[in-house]
C-alpha cells in the first residue's frame, strides 16, 4: 500500500515537472523577445485595449522571469539534489526567487490591464501580492530564522501559486470546451481566482497532512 502511494506521488510529481517545463518553454518560445511578445496572439487579442508601450516590455519580462521560475522550481523539492549537492539547491533557489521577484512585480503591473474586468484585475493583483509575500516569508525563514521546516512550508505555498500558470492554462480550454466561453474577458472573471485559490488550499492540505512528521521539511 505504501509502495503504491509512493509510486503515485512520483508519477504526479513527474507530471507536474513535465507541465512546468513545458509551460516555461512556451513562455520563452512566444515571449522570448519584446518583439515576439508584441506579436503574440495574446497581445494581438488585446489590441482594442490600446495598451501603453510599457505593457509589452513588462509582459515580456513577466513571461521570461516567471517562466524560468516555473520551469526550475520543482527541482527544489527533490531530496537527492539537496542532500548531495546543496549548492545546486542554493543556486536554483536564488534564480527561482529572482524570477518570482521580477515576475511578481511585473505581474502587479500587467494585472492592472488584465482581461476579466474588475474581478480579473483584482484576482491577478491578489495572486501577485500573495506570491511576493510567500517568497518573502520563504526567504526570511531560511536566511534570517534558519528554520528549514518553515522554509519548506512557505516555498510549498509559493510554488503552488507559481503553478497558477499551469492551472490557468488547463481551465481556459475547459471553459471553452465545457461552457463555450472563449473570450478571456468572460472566463478570466472567474479563472483569475480559480487558477490559484485551490492550489493554495492544496498546499495547505499537504502541509497540515504531515501528521507526526510535521517537524520535517517537505521533500520527495
Ligand atoms: C503566480 C503569479 C502570476 C501572476 C499574478 C500573473 C499575472 C498575469 C497577468 C495579469 C497576465 C495578463 C493577463 C491579461 O492581460 O489578461 C499574465 C499573462 C501571462 N503570464 Fe502570468 N502571472 C503569474 C504567473 C505566471 C507564471 C509562473 C508564468 C510562467 C509561464 C506566467 C506567464 C505568463 C504569460 C506567458 C502570459 C501571457 C499570456 C499567455 O500567453 O497565456 N505567469 N500573467
From TrEMBL:
Regions that span the bilayer: 12-34, 54-79, 91-112, 118-139, 159-181, 187-207
UniProt keyword annotation of Lyase present: no
Domain of life: Bacteria
Keyword set, alphabetical order: Membrane, Transmembrane, Transmembrane helix
Record keyword Signal present: no
Entry-linked Pfam families: DUF2306
Name of the protein in its database record: DUF2306 domain-containing protein
Organism listed in the record: Paenibacillus terricola
